[in-house]
Amino acid sequence: MKDKTIKLKINDQLVEARTGVSVLQAAREAGIYIPSLCELEELPATASCRLCLIEIKGHLSLVPACSTRAENGMEVVTSSDRLESLRLATLEMILSEHPYFCLICGEKATCDDLKVTMAKAFEPGGCVFCPRDGQCELQQVASYLKIKKVSFKFRERSRYQWLKDPFISHNPNLCILCGRCVNVCGEIRGENVLTVVNRGETTAIGTFYNRPLKESNCSFCGACLDVCPTGAMSEKGLLAARGEKLSSQKLLCSLCGCGCELEIESREDGSCRRIFPSSQDQPAFMSGCLRGRFGLKELLAGYKPGESPYLRTKDGVEKVSLEEALSAAAARLKEGRAEETAFVFSESAPVEDLLAFISLGQGFGRQNIFWYYPENFLSRLKGFEEQNGLEFDYYPLSSGQWPDQPCFFVLDSDLKSEAVTLWLKIKKQLRAGARLITLDSSFNSVESRADLKIKPFPGKEYLALVAIFKLWLDKQPGAIKFYPGLEELTGKLSHYQVEELAAASGLDLTSVEAAVNLLAGNNHWTFILGERFLRQANWQENLLAAWNLSLALHGQILPVCSRINEVFLAQLAAQGKIKVITEVRRLEDLIKEKKIRHLYVYGDLPLDEKPEFLVVHNHFFSRLGKQGDVFLPASFSSEQGSHFVDNSGRLRETSFWQKKEEKPTSGREVFNTLREKLGMAERSYSANFTADNQPESLAVADFKIECKSGSKRYLLPEEMALKIQSNLTEVQGTVSAGEFMIVVEQNLDLYSGCDLPTEVSGYNQARNPNLILINPEDAGCLELAAGQAMKINLGKYALRGVIKPDFGIIPGVLVIRPLITDSILSDLYQQGLIRGTVELKND
Amino acid sequence: MEPLKFNLLKDLKTAGQGSQNGSGPRVISLSAASCGQASGALEVASAFESAIKELGLEDKVKFKLTGCHGFCQLEPDIIIFPEKYFYPLVKVENAKRILLESGLNGRFIPELGFKDEGTPNGVSRLEELPFYQNQLRWLIDQQLDLDPLSLEDYLKHGGFQALEAVLSELTPPEVIGEIVASGLRGRGGAGFSTGLKWKLAREVAAQPKYLVCNGDEGDPGAYMDRGILESNPYSVLEGMLIGGYAVGATRGFIYVRQEYPLAIERLDKAISSLFQAGLLGEKILGSDFSFELELVRGAGAFVSGEETALIASVEGRRANPRQRPPFPVVSGLWGKPTVINNVETWANIPLIVKKGAAWFSKTGTDKSKGTKIFSLVGQVKYSGLIEVPLGISLNEIINKIGGGAKSGKKIKAVQIGGPSGGCLPAELFNLRVDYESLPAAGAIMGSGGLIALDEDTCLVNLALYFLKFACDESCGQCVPCRIGTQQMVSILEKITKGQGELADLDLLEKIGSTMQQASLCGLGRTAPNPVLTALRYFHHEFEEHIVEKKCRALVCSDLISYVIDEGKCSGCLLCLNSCPYGAIEIASSGLPQIKLSSCEGCGLCSSVCPEEFQAVKKISGKDRQQIQLRPDGMS
Questions:
Q1: How far is A89 from chain B (nearest CA, A)?
Q2: For the packed helices A584-592 and A823-831, what is the interaxial angle rounded to 10 degrees?
Q3: Is the same domain home to A538 and A639?
Q4: In whole angstroms, what is the distance from residue B104 CA to residue B215 CA?
Q5: Which among B471, B475, B483 has CB closest to A96?
Q6: Which of A252, B67, B139, B544 has its CA 20 to 30 A from that of A559?
Q7: What is the DSSP string of A544-558?
Q8: For the segment A119-166, what is each residue's pLDDT rounded down to a tens digit?
């Protein structure tokens, strides 16, 4: 916390406050309550509810405390007859539009028992039927102001509720138009989906042309639910909970690398009422997304811990006890030869459980322990750095600190879907004047917020970066920071013209010029690399071009890790403790060649080749699980002292106990039992990682992307120079009719083998993995309309999907986000960019 | 003709020299702003033009399409210079005659001139018209013979001499000093000192700085800004150029409401001609001053005229006002210091620079200097765009310039300042029109709407009209304005329907005072003014509506009935035949009678009754109740 630097008087009480805070905040921190319905910390003040009006000595008129900065020596009165009567009148006005009968009802105190209020058809007639009952801020303000009557005529607005969307519903009749949802949607999340529509008495919250949210590019982050002071924005299907005993627990979301703290509100029977981001350390709307809050809720609700282990027998599948399943698994594993036994895991279990699994695998030798890491992102980055003897300057994300006026250069990363909390931090900086450049050949949901968006042709990102570097070099050679190799690089680049580099990357000169102007005019650049930047054939060139540019600016590099535990596992891989498996095909080959006969998969793997003996150990009875000889259910609950490592490398504790589960079995327990059955010594995997051969770095709290020391120098190897040369002759955008460059984007909606769009009802409407994004002009040429089915031919394989025209896609490009459920898709995903032809799906 | 182009300051000086020597052919000036064109000015113009061509008089007379001449009800009108002969309501068939006799030979044609009961002998010259006599037309007199589209003509009228003087002789602080000393206050309504605003903006360190001209004139019945923009766009642009130099701004925006297509068209042409002439752009006339201007069209919301809402609108966002401070001079467009002035304020700037602050501040009151343009409309005899010295009494405006009531009925009130202003009763007509006296009486200066109301106006109904307007135009953001206006409308509707209670009047006061104190922007804070002033000065009318169910102006349809005056009725039965409801029957006297139980109050009987009889009359209150009580329900 910053130093308290100013002093002011609030109601004759001397209060210290930090500079820059509002009077309302200063009062709140001093424990003085000023009613407000539109203000929220971190949200830009709109001063629309007018309840927080205060008197300031020396001011003629009343001012809102929320938008008035606390100044040294200020004398403030927050409560007086005049203020309270104004507040009461204002509240009466608010209540003349919002059902208020319960608020002023004389039976209020006893109503919980009597439940006498009647509901009007389909409308909450009073608070008892409102999903927000008990948590409603209007109730708080009404009770503070002790309102007894509303002297104005009640105006029934009779507006239609929003019922077409999944997860979120809006009841405009409960809306007090505080504007928080619009504010959080635009200013905080950068979505700009919600807006205020109409004027006067018809003013309402709406969307562009009043389309449903699912047709308005809403990401269903749910932030509007977190900020709504009333029940106007509520989770779809959520009912009032009056009289119910609710309890809440914390859960660290492991569905992506962000590791958001979620709060799970459960009913007495242990069922989950709702999930929302925790507001303990920061406002709830500063984290969370569709996956965690809505996907997980349904998974928790639908997940049956009774999904028992099973064994495959000659006659089919037989449900057995865990003990029996483990014995059977141990017996077969014992039979096999150690070198023919492989242990493969995916990232989504707590690190303790992963370590226990690795340790179990080590009992079979160190050769065959694989982390299935389809992106191969950090490994490539670090491998490249080491191979070339470079020393990247990584931005320490875990520090949580940005320099003053930071600038961001985002490369092929759709931050909103890959690391939403990072995006929210950046968005906050943007509000304070930070600059943002995006360079993305594919769909990018944050580029509309950027000062400059650069759209090179897929696979030509490096050419765009070289063009920028070259133009800068031409214009202001002195501004380029000096490091060894600059002269050589300058010499090599002198063979190229900026124009031809730009043209070869599919850009016009103006965006290159704009980029140079922005780069040269600002400091503190962080180069944010998305996994897509390195998941393509030209990844080395891309990385090198970004590296050279970052050197020239003294910039830092921040790789966006989209998976939980990614930083930690990459570290283990770098230390040689585990191997990374990226292409499932290679594993399949080993199985075909009988080099792997026994396979234990912890988590999920899009494997199509079944080994002789397969153990699948997963939360979900996934596609692979159904093929297993032994299936072991993994528990959602985690013991005290379980940890995940988030995308900043921080070790984050989690403990969650699903109540309906009588006896949760953690991975550790399962693996210890197996060890026992396999005749191995028992091991403990507690939070302090005391076991012998644990990686040393586990002793410290956080993980850093560390490397063997290298140097900072400019680099342009001959191969790359040649590649540039050959690319210059190739003219861009020459896709023949129907032929497209297809970008295979990451889709994190496949969680541990669980296909969220299919498993979670409504998810598909919010985020459909079958969409094929296309430039609207291309769609027009092909006479393809939105929502139409379409087939992409990839030689021996065909992809089917539904057309979605989007202006963020450049001509000649298609963007798909398939869930990688089989090895062929896995293969496409590895390639990142593929060529294919489009065919209308007539069958 | 080659477009004008200036390279150096001295070019500008020479361009203006020796132009106004008054010699040359007579000028026939036709008023052709939007309202003139709507009254057929363009047809008249083509009649003149073809006649000139036909008779080969191109060198002998000069025909000019100008902007607004001010006397709206007599448009299209023609003024012939230098004599200033005035012809009202000019018709196409008279074009040739006026051209030959007055234009060519300088003789006035009395039968085409202005004449009314006040001037039975007719009036030949503009300055003899009572409407023009009591005005002080510093700004709008120039419009009488100025071609709004011609930069050359503007230069001939002394245009850009002020800019030339500023750029060649004055430092920015000196310009600001001059404006401060002039005592000019914002003509948009709030009346903040213009010079001080500029000074504050200049002192803010942040760069770049912006200027905005607020031309989002939205008050019903007000058209001062349109008048200037259509008739003399260059004066506004020159004012902004001077402002840009003084404040240190490099870019200006002129925000004009979309509903003013002619103003937009003329401004657009004026701006591009200035770019062409080298008066806008980089390093203007060889000086170090660079300035650009951009025209922004409003999207049709009254609230966009509020300065912070206007900023949002220019930035491309929804026109929602925001809480001040910070004021736009500190944080305006894109968070940069921004000076927003009204059209009329900008138009005053060249005048002040040219004539000097001392000269300017001689006119007006202690704290309100210069002149103010009003659009005088309503039940006065003469209506139109007027310019008067500040400090003039309402009496002079209504009775001298306006010529008193049109109908012979008494003017009982004047609504000043539009939906944000108030109704002042005839007893207060001695009130001086300035920035202090009007607010003290509950009204505001506003941007210059002035509506005279006679006894046929129901003050309750009028208050309802303005509140409905404010209610529809509220941005909906803050509670007191959005809901307060709604509640006021519903209460006033109740009262006009005769369903009001006396307690409702207290409720109106309560809402009004909450809105005044708690609303976010000026729109909400001033929206209750029409109701509160009506309550203050015409409380009896409200009480009559509530207690006696009487509308003395016979306007509120639920409180009036139509009856036939047997003494006046001639028994023609036109009314009986036209009544769509069959509510008129023949009484024993043989004359028609209205059966109240069947009457829907459409008023058709009243309108068909021949003027010489005027036998159908409206009654309200006690008379009406007595009839309603009669068992036969017949009037």
A1: 7
A2: 130
A3: no
A4: 39
A5: B483
A6: A252
A7: HHHHHHHHHTT-EEE
A8: 444 444 678 788 888 889 999 999 999 999 999 999 888 899 999 999
Q: How many residues does chain B have?
A: 635
Distance, in Å, from the CA atom of A313 to the CA atom of A835, rounded to the nearest integer, reads 44
Quick one: pLDDT at residue A650?
87
| Residue B182 contacts residue B357 (beta carbons within 8 Å) | yes
Q: What residues contact A113, with CB distance under 8 A and at least 6 apart?
A: none
End-to-end CA distance of chain A: 63
Question: What average pLDDT does chain A have?
Answer: 87
CA A289 vs CA A72, A803, B336, B483: distances in Å: 40, 25, 35, 35
Which one-letter amino acid corresponds to residue A526? T
End of a domain among A671, A699, A727? A699
Task: Select the residue of A67, A155, A202 nearest B323 (Cβ to Cβ).
Answer: A67
Judged by CB atoms closer than 8 Å, whether chains meet at B483 and A50 is answered as no
Confidence of residue A686 (pLDDT cuts 50, 70, 90): low
Instruction: Please name the residue that has the structure tokens 């009875």.
Output: A621
User: Measured between alpha carbons, how far is A674 from A363 in angstroms, rounded to an integer?
Assistant: 11
| End-to-end Cα distance, chain B | 73
Q: Given pLDDT bands bounded at 50, 70 and 90, which one contains residue A687?
A: very low
Report chain A residues whose CB lies below 8 A from the CB of B486. Answer: 155, 200-201
Q: How many CA atoms does the CB half-sphere of A81 hold within 13 Å?
A: 0
Query: B472: helix, coil or strand?
Result: helix
B151-360: which CATH number, 2.20.140.10, 1.10.1790.10, 3.40.50.11540, 3.60.40.10?
A: 3.40.50.11540
Kindly determine whether residue B486 and residue A155, on different chains, have CB atoms separated by under 8 Å.
Answer: yes
Structural domain boundaries enclosing A445: 387-559
- What pLDDT is stored for residue A664 in this prediction? 60
CATH number where A508 lies: 3.40.228.10
State the CATH class of domain B24-129: alpha beta
Which chain B residues are within 8 Å of A50, Cβ to Cβ? 478-480, 518-520
Please list, residue by residue across B273-299, b when 16 or more beta carbons sit within 10 angstroms of its beta carbon and e when fewer do: bbeebbbbeeebbeeebebebebbbbe
- Give me the residue from A50, A67, A97 closest to B518, CB to CB: A50
**Are the C-beta atoms of residues A836 and A742 closer than 8 Å to each other?**
yes
Under the phi-then-psi rule, with left for phi > 0, alpha for psi from -120 to 50, and beta for the rest, what region is B243? alpha
Q: How far apart are CA B579 and CA B592, in angstroms?
A: 11
Instruction: With CA atoms as reference, report the closest residue to B196 among B55, B83, B414, B345.
Output: B345
Contact B479 A64 (CB under 8 A): no
Q: How far apart are CA B236 and CA A175, in angstroms?
A: 44
Residue A89 contacts B, CB cutoff 8 Å: yes
Taking the C-alpha atoms of residue A198 and residue A179, their distance in angstroms, rounded to an integer, is 14
Longest dimension (CA), chain B: 92
Question: A interface mutation test: which of B483, B485, B494, B525 has the most A CBs within 10 A?
Answer: B483
Given A680, A699, A718, the domain boundary residue is A699
A55 DSSP β-pair partners: A77
User: Which runs of consecutive H residues, i.e. helices, occur in A115-200?
Assistant: 137-145, 180-183
Please enumerate residues of B whose Cβ is less than 8 A from a Cβ of A.
Answer: 301, 303, 318, 320, 322-323, 471-480, 482-487, 490, 507, 510-511, 514, 517-520
